[in-house]
Amino acid sequence: MPIKIEEYITGEQKNYYAEWFNDLSVEYAAKVAAARARMMVGSFGNVKPIDGALKEYRIDWGPGIRIYLIQDGEVFIVLLGGGTKNGQSADIRQAKKLRDEYFARKAMLKKSQKG
């Protein structure tokens, strides 16, 4: 059974991952698409934990490509894509912000469904 991977869309309807992906060159986009396909069949060998639920999928090609994601039950939520080591700190800060927003929105939804 394939693994479900979704892209996170913020409360403001912004999809940071899609915006990043759409700006990639054809070569980079192909590498990212291949990595995503590998994840969908359960290949997570290049995934490393960063902080709590936040994980980083490393694609070792060119200056390096990273996909930041979280796991929520059986679903992997792609938050953000990133590039080189120079921008990694900013990418991780943004991914943490998106992770926190995702879980806060999920908790609010759960609370509103109870009451």
General description of the model:
The chain is built from 3 helices and 5 strands; from the N terminus they run βααββββα. The protein has a 5-stranded mixed beta sheet. The chain is globular. Helices cover 43% and strands 27% of the residues. A hairpin with a 5-residue loop joins strand 3 and strand 4 (65-72). The N and C termini lie far apart (35 Å). The mean pLDDT is 91. The chain has one domain (4-110): 2-Layer Sandwich (YaeB-like fold), CATH 3.30.2310.20. It is of the alpha+beta class. It has helices spanning 16-22, 26-40, 88-114; strands at 4-7, 47-51, 54-59, 65-72, 75-82.
Summarize the structure.
The chain is α+β, with helices and mostly antiparallel strands.
Q: Termini, distance in Å?
A: 35 Å
| Structure class | alpha+beta
Strand order of the largest sheet: 1-5-4-3-2
Number of helices: 3
The overall pLDDT average reads 91
The beta-strand count equals 5
* Binned strand content: 25-35%
Spell out the CATH superfamily. Answer: RelE-like
CATH topology title: YaeB-like fold
Helical coverage, percent range: 40-55%
